[in-house]
Amino acid sequence: MNLKRLFSQIYVQVLIGIVIGAAIGILWPHVGAALKPVADGFIKLIKMLLAPIIFGTVLVGMARMGDLKEVGRIGVKALIYFEVLSTIALVIGLIVVNVMQPGAGLNIDASNLDGKQLATFTEAAKEQGVIPFLLDIIPTTFVDAFAKGAMLQVILLAVLTGTAVSQLGERGKPLVDFIDVFLDAIFKIVGMVMRLAPLGAGAGVAFTIGKYGVDTLWSLGRLLIALYVTSIAFVFIVLGLVMRSTGLSFWKFLGFIREEIFVVLGTCSTEAVLPRMMKKLEDMGCAKPVVGLVLPAGYTFNADGTCIYLTLATVFVAQATNTHLSLIDQLVILGVLLLTSKGSAGVAGAGFITLAATLSTLHAIPVSGLVLLLGVDRFLNEVRAVTNLIGNGVATVAIAKWDGALDMDQARATLAKGATSA
Q1: If you count DSSP H runs as helices and E runs as strands, how many of each does the chain have, helices first?
Q2: Which of 132, 250, 315, 359 is a Cys-bridge partner for 243, taking CB atoms 3.0 to 4.6 Å apart?
Q3: Which residues have CB under 8 Å from 2's CB, separation 6+?
Q4: 261-273, pLDDT tens digit by residue?
C-alpha cells in the first residue's frame, strides 16, 4: 500500500488526529481544553441524523420482511443476549475489583469529600428507575421522539409504523420505496460528516488531556489499569468466543470496524459512529431489520463496557473509603446494578447517574465517594465506549447468524476485504 492510499484512509487520519490532539493537550493545555466545542460539534452533526436513520431502517426492514413474527423473535433473542452478556460483564468486573483491589490503601475519609460537584448526577439519579424508564419509551407526540433524538422512542414508532405499512400490502410500497431512497441520501450525508472525524477525535483527546491533565492518571492509576485490562480481556475472550461461534473471524471483524473504533476512542461517544456501524453491518450481510432493531437497542440494553465499569467503580469507592462489603453485600450490588444499569441508559453522564442511583439505593457506600472518579471519568469513558461499540457490533452479527438473517458468504468476503482496506 503506497503512502498516498494509506493517508487517504479515515482510520489513519483519525489516528493522526488523536496523536496531534494528545500533543496539543500536553503542550498547550489551555488550547486543548478550548477545543471541546469542536468535538461536541462533530458529535451533534452525527446525532442529528440518528433518528431518521433508525426510523427508516427499522420501518423499511419490517415492511419488506413480511412475517411480523420474525420481528418479535429477533427482539426476544436480542433481549436474552443483552441480559446474559451484561450479567457476565458485571460479574467479571466484580471479580477483578476484588482481586486487584484498586481502592485499597487510599484511606479516604468520606466526610471530608465535597459532594457539591455531584449535584447534577445525584438529582438525575433520583429521576431514574425502572418504571420511569419504561414510561419514557412512549413519546409525548410522534414528532417529539425525533426532536429529542430518543432512540427507544424512535424504535417504538418505527416498529408500529412498519407493522402498519406492512399490512397495507402494495398500497404501502411507494412509501417504503420513498423512505428507502431517503435513507440512501441520509447515509450520503453521514459520509460527508465522517470526513470531519479526524478533527472531532483529535479535539476530543486534546480537551480530555488539556482539561484533566496526564497527572490525574497517576492518582487513580490502579483503577484505570483494572478497567482497561478487564475490558480488553472481556473483548478478546468473551466477545471473541461469541464471534467465533458464528463461524467468522473476530480479528477480521475488528479490522473491518477499525475506523469506528478510533473515532469512538477519540470522541468517547458510540453515537458518533452508529450510522456508519449500521451501514457496515448491512453491507456485511446482516438483514436490515436485525441491524435496525438490535444495534440501536443494544446502545441502551447492552453496554458491556459500562457494566464492567459499574461494578469496578462501585466497589472501588467502597475500598477507597474503607467501607467493608461482605459477599452478600456484593451480590446485592450485582442485583441492583442489573436494574440500574438499564434504568439510566441513554442519559448524559449515564455512568455517574447509574453509580449515584446504585449507591443511594445501597446506603452502605457513601455517594460522596464518587468525587474521587470525576477527574478520571473521561479516561475511563474511552475504554468503556470502545467496549460498548465492539460488544454491540458482535451482538448484531451473532443474533443475525442465529436467526438465519446473515449471508455468510457475503460476510466472509466483506470481512476479508474490509480487514485489509478501507
Answers
A1: 24, 0
A2: 250
A3: none
A4: 988 888 777 778 8
- Angle made by CA atoms 156, 162, 166, in degrees to the nearest 5: 155
Least confident piece of the model among 40-49, 124-133, 292-301, 402-411? 124-133
Q: Express each pLDDT in 347-379 by its tens digit.
A: 445 666 677 767 766 666 777 677 777 667 777
Beta partners for residue 406, in sequence order: 286
Phi, psi of 317 (to 5 degrees): -60, -40
Q: What is the DSSP string of 212-224?
A: H-THHHHHTHHHH
Count of domains in the chain? 1
Spatial contact of 371 and 117, defined as CB atoms under 8 Å apart: yes
Of 412, 399, 422, 371, nearest to 262 by C-alpha is 422
- 48: which 3 cell numbers? 442529528
Residue 367: which CATH number?
1.10.3860.10
**pLDDT confidence bin for 346, thresholds 50/70/90:** very low
What band does 237 get if pLDDT is binned at 50, 70 and 90? very high
C-alpha 24: how far from its chain's center? Answer: 27
Note the Cα 422 to chain centre separation in Å: 23
> What are the cell numbers at 28?
498547550
Q: What is the mean pLDDT of residues 272-298?
A: 87
Q: Where are the alpha helices (DSSP H) in 66-150?
A: 69-100, 119-126, 130-136, 142-148
pLDDT of residue 125: 47
Q: In angstroms, what CA-CA distances link 328 with 6, 89, 96, 312, 360?
A: 54, 19, 17, 17, 18
Tell how far CA 49 is from the center of its chain: 17
Per the document, the length of the chain is 422
CA 224 to chain centre: 18
The cell for 299 is: 446502545
For 315-342, letters b (16+ CB in 10 Å) and e give bbbbbbbebebeeebbeebbebbebbbb
Query: Which of 61-70, 243-252, 301-310 shows the lowest per-residue confidence on average (mean pLDDT)?
Result: 61-70
Domain hosting residue 120, numbered range: 3-418
The single residue listed with the C-alpha cell 425525533 is 146
Question: Using CA atoms, how far apart are residues 21 and 35, in angstroms rounded to an integer?
Answer: 9
pLDDT confidence tier of residue 399, bands split at 50, 70 and 90: very high
Identity at 276, one-letter amino acid code: R
- Residue 355 CA to residue 336 CA, distance in Å, equals 10
**Number of C-beta neighbours around residue 184 at 10 A:** 10
